[in-house]
Amino acid sequence: MFRMKRRVSAETMRSRLHLLTFLALSVAVVNAQPSPKVRKSQASSAGATVGQRTFSSRCAGCHGLDGRGSQRAPNIATDPTIRHLSDPELTQIILNGRTDFGMPAFRELGSGEIQHVVDYLRVLQGAGVVSPVGNPQRGKDIFFGKAECSTCHTVAGQAVFVGSDLSTYARGLTAAEIRRAITDPAPSAGRARTAVATTRDRQTLIGAVRNEDNFSIQLQGADGTFHFLLKSDLDKLEYRRLPAMPTNYGQKLSPQELDDLVGYLQSIKIGTVPDPGEE
Fold it and tell me: Which residues make up the CATH 2.60.40.420 domain(s) of the chain?
């Protein structure tokens, strides 16, 4: 009987050793699997790319293309208070607006698109500083001359609804990203539309369309003022066609000229080339 008990104990020990070996192998296999955090990071990166288009057309008019604010809206890129907000808190602000700051609600974007905007805002909040490429001074001449960028864009902070103010556009972007935006621009449908609203008492309001549904429209005037209008109170509502951004800069400008133009856009935000109004 004693020998049998010893035999059973030995078999039990072997079983336990097999079990431990199996568990060790299982842990190794699990650790070898791709981390879910990596997949989440890749999804956030893709979302930020989508969110950039929405941010440029819906948010940059007040917060600036770099998110660092203007006279119309606060800095949401580097302000510690904003940076410390969680994604759900930022989502709620975008969804419901901030009436105390004159910020409208953007419920029509939907939760998915709002999350993309938050993803892109996180990119802006972590953006680094890059050194200009090319020759910024030659790039400035190209901006106001051969490329004719100044016919739609400004670099002095004025309100422009045809094209964005590019004064701080390059902040946080690499030279390759800026060059890609020039040679392969987003479609004009992704940019803010402008509209002319004529009320029944013959008042005319012109501005960028910030929000619109079947019953109302919200315009932002050149001075940054928001106008909430009921369509039933309007005598006429006309939309202005946006000129498309040229898509032939890759052929129109040489590689060196593109580098110079990119360098000029980068230099504006670090102050190495004076703005046109300062000359």
Answer: 130-187+244-279
Report whether CATH 1.10.760.10 matches the domain 40-127. Answer: yes
| CA gap 40, 25 in Å, rounded | 26
Alpha-carbon span 127 to 198, nearest angstrom: 42
Per CATH, the number for 192-240 is 2.30.30.100
99: confidence class by pLDDT, cuts 50, 70, 90:
confident
Distance CA 40, CA 144 (A): 42
- What is the per-residue pLDDT across 191-249, written as a single tens digit (0 to 9) for each? 557 889 999 999 999 887 878 899 999 987 766 678 999 999 999 999 876 666 788 99
75: left (phi over 0), alpha (psi -120 to 50) or beta: beta
Q: What is the pTM of this model?
A: 0.43
Is residue 50 over pLDDT 60? yes
Q: How far apart are CA 63 and CA 210, in angstroms?
A: 13
- Residue 231 makes CB contacts below 8 A (sequence gap 6+) with 214, 215, 216, 217, 237
The string of pLDDT tens digits covering residues 38-48 is 333 333 556 77
Nearest Cα to Cα of residue 222 among 48, 62, 88, 100: 62
| CATH architecture classification, 130-187+244-279 | Sandwich (2.60)
